[in-house]
Amino acid sequence: MPPDTSSKKPTPVIIAGGGWSGLAAAIELAHHKIPVTLLESAKQLGGRARCVRFNDHQVDNGPHIMIGAYSSMLYLTKLMKLKESDLFIRKPLRLFLRSLKTRKSFELRTHRIPAPLHLLTALLTCSGLKASEKWLAIRFMNNMQRRNFILDKDVSVSDLLHSEAQTEHLINCLWAPLCIATLNTPLEKASAQIFIHVLQESFSEKRKHSDTLIPKVSLGDVLPNPAFDFIERNGGHIELGQRVTDIHIQDNAVTGLSISDRKMAADHIILALPQYAAHTLLKPHISCNTASDKLQQFSTQPICTIYLQYPRQIKMKLMMTGVQDGISQWIFDRRICGQNGLMAVIISAEGGHINMDNQTLIQTVIDELAILRPDWPKPLDTMVIREKRATFNCHTGVSKHRPDHKTPVMGCWLAGDYTNTGLPATLEGGIRSGLECARAVIQSIEGIKSINEERSNA
Ligand SMILES: Cc1cc2nc3c(=O)[nH]c(=O)nc-3n(C[C@H](O)[C@H](O)[C@H](O)COP(=O)(O)OP(=O)(O)OC[C@H]3O[C@@H](n4cnc5c(N)ncnc54)[C@H](O)[C@@H]3O)c2cc1C
Hints:
Bound molecules: flavin-adenine dinucleotide
Number of domains: 3
Distance between the termini: 45 Å
CATH class of the largest domain: Alpha Beta
Oligomer: single chain
């Protein structure tokens, strides 16, 4: 019979899930010297932002773009004493997109001047838009600023842009690539409120917030690996390959959880899982019905990544190139990670490509790249990664379903990119959620401690 540890002195906090939200929560708790155990069902940390192997290369599950506004992520790297310049190349935003149909390009670059002037000059000096379209884009940002980036009612991004008289060409060049890259949801469905919140965080406060942070190392070395060391060094404990199968609740308070071979007692459990996995654990408990019903309302959107290994001398001019009028959306040149000749092509959100088999998908992407770079030879090797449930569907009105950290059950907490952060499903959203959840847990533990101290002093 497996050992039952439920009667032993409970671990104050157990975190289920070792993605970036669970890791953020564990780092914050360990930093506050609160003993924490993190259980991850996979054999590695990182969740959706994990590493995979492609021949001799360690690549990412999908290349992840980060920006200067990822303040919580930068807070964590600082806490773990990592140097930003060892992890990322920070560059002012440079959006460069080329159309496969017209071969015309669009380019927008921010300059090193204070916000929001940096955006104003970027829009005025960008290439590929008519002067009238530049003014329309500036007027749009100005209108959003005047509304303090809050809409009376959430509508789709497409409806908002049309109501603000943005032309189809302007939408295709600027707003659509930004919306799909950040919300991973087509414009006709995407939440305008969440989109303008992203614009606010990226462009309205500090110039450096719109910088791109392109990882120089694999995603594992940005957070999961340093986090493992930090948590273990600070009294925490991580177990891999441990799937949480049940949570235990008594008198509306958490008492512990089960993994495949044992029970573990806990005062607090943070479910840092994707919404559908948290739903599975909460569903059997009547007291969690409202919370689990909310989680069931979420749908998901896919992301496809196609890795293409070309000969080592092959390279793009830029690290990140946008593609219009095809199925490919962004090409990332991995030479920045020392992987010469390796291109990662990203296709975000739903679309016709989902029904293509891998061979057709790869060939279509190769043909599209050949339009941009006819001088390139055939790739030597390819790999497709399809993440069917890459992000929650960031559709109009989705914020209504996004839960807070606290559940109706004492000691049962939720963290993850889908919680009520106001951001789309991003690394920063996951991290902020994990940090805020950990701080709420710390407050609860400190509160109980001070009540006990008052009692014993009385
Ligand atoms: C291909 C792709 C590209 C992306 N690109 C970007 C980008 O460019 N920029 C950006 O900011 N974001 C991007 N994202 C989104 C980002 O990866 C996610 O928002 C973030 O990783 C979510 O972290 P999380 O901790 O909330 O969830 P997850 O990463 O899903 O972590 C949950 C963890 O829980 C574990 N788990 C599940 N069930 C159990 C259980 N029962 N017991 C124990 N453990 C369990 C899982 O294995 C997983 O490790 C991308 C995502 C994908 C898939």
